Amino acid sequence: MPEETLIAFDYGTKKIGVAIGNTLTRVARPLEIITSVTRDQRFADIARVLAAWQPDRVVVGLPLTTSGQTQYATLRCRRFANQLQGRFGVVVALVDEHGSSMEAQELLGSNAPDDAVAAAVILQRYLDALTPSLTL
Length: 136
Description:
5-stranded mixed sheet; Nucleotidyltransferase, domain 5; single chain; alpha/beta
């Protein structure tokens, strides 16, 4: 598999967490939190991130229920993913984000904003799924 730069988004109606990683190191790290109020400004901020990092692929967290079913938030995230693909022409992968915010809070060990860390958790799940398991 050729090396790819990846950007992940933890989509929310008020904040969007952003993380970056690549398929060479297979490590994700938090990048920033987009807190723009208007839709136009949010997409301008997303355009800035995409232009700066030029990812080969974008990963979006998909909020499913504990039983893996869709919910209202799932539909909003799918719409966001479709908008990213349509506006920016990027390849988008969806990853189950269940529990990513709780995991991010545990990693932070505080009540600090966790959106970018949650995006890194989502991206790390994607990267881990790419890694073939090693057995002896």
